[in-house]
Amino acid sequence: MNGFRKSLLATTIAIAFPLAQADAAGSAFDGTWNVRISSSSETCGNGATVAIGISNGQIASSSAAVTASGKVADAGSVNVTLGAGIKHAVGSGRLSGTSGSGTWRGAMCSGTWTAERI
Questions:
Q1: CB of 107 within 8 A of CB of 87?
Q2: DSSP string, 33-98
Q3: Mean pLDDT, rounded, of the chain
Q4: Is pLDDT at 17 greater than 60 in this prediction?
Q5: Which of 11, 77, 85, 99 lies most in the core, judged by the most C-beta atoms within 10 Å?
Q6: Largest Cα–Cα distance of the chain, in whole Å?
Q7: Is 25:74 a contact under the CB 8 Å cutoff?
Q8: Which CATH number fits domain 3-117: 3.50.50.60, 2.40.128.120, 2.60.40.3080, 3.40.50.300?
Q9: CA contacts within 13 A on the Cβ side of 104
Q10: In b/e form, how buried is each residue of 8-25, taking b as 16+ CB within 10 angstroms?
Q11: Is 84 within 8 Å of 13 (Cβ atoms)?
């Protein structure tokens, strides 16, 4: 995998990570989530799955390689910003019960994400 693809995959993972970390006040979304990130372009990678933890609705990365910020509202809407090195992406969507989905976009790639509570 070349450097560009690795960078893109890291950005995608970075997006997914915070997307799964939801709700703001000791929410119904707290816990561990598997987030599957998919790209709409082959040049952006084949996708990735990342385990995410949600605590009090705040989105934060537990990986040194990825930064994440954002939150999940009480109703389940998700807004997040992710970064990996110089790559950044934003994502939005909705969590409901034990699953969720949404979209993400970066400077050169975009795609969708789905989440499932573990």
A1: yes
A2: EEEEEEESSGGG-S-EEEEEEEBTTEE----TT-EEEEEE-TT-EEEEEEEETTEEEEEEEEEETT
A3: 76
A4: no
A5: 11
A6: 41
A7: yes
A8: 2.40.128.120
A9: 37
A10: bbbbbbbbbbbbbbbbee
A11: yes
**CA-based radius of gyration for the chain:** 13
For the segment 66-95, the average pLDDT, to the nearest whole number, is 86
The residue written with tokens 């372009």 in the block is 41
Rounded Cα distance, 52 and 48, in Å? 13
Q: Angle at CA 6, nearest 5°, toward 17 and 79?
A: 25
The pLDDT of residue 25: 45
Residue 101 token pair: 């989905």
Any idea which residue has 């816990």 for tokens? 31
* pLDDT tens per residue, range 48-57: 777 777 889 9
Band (pLDDT 50/70/90 cuts) for residue 12 is: low
User: What confidence score (pLDDT) does residue 86 get?
Assistant: 87
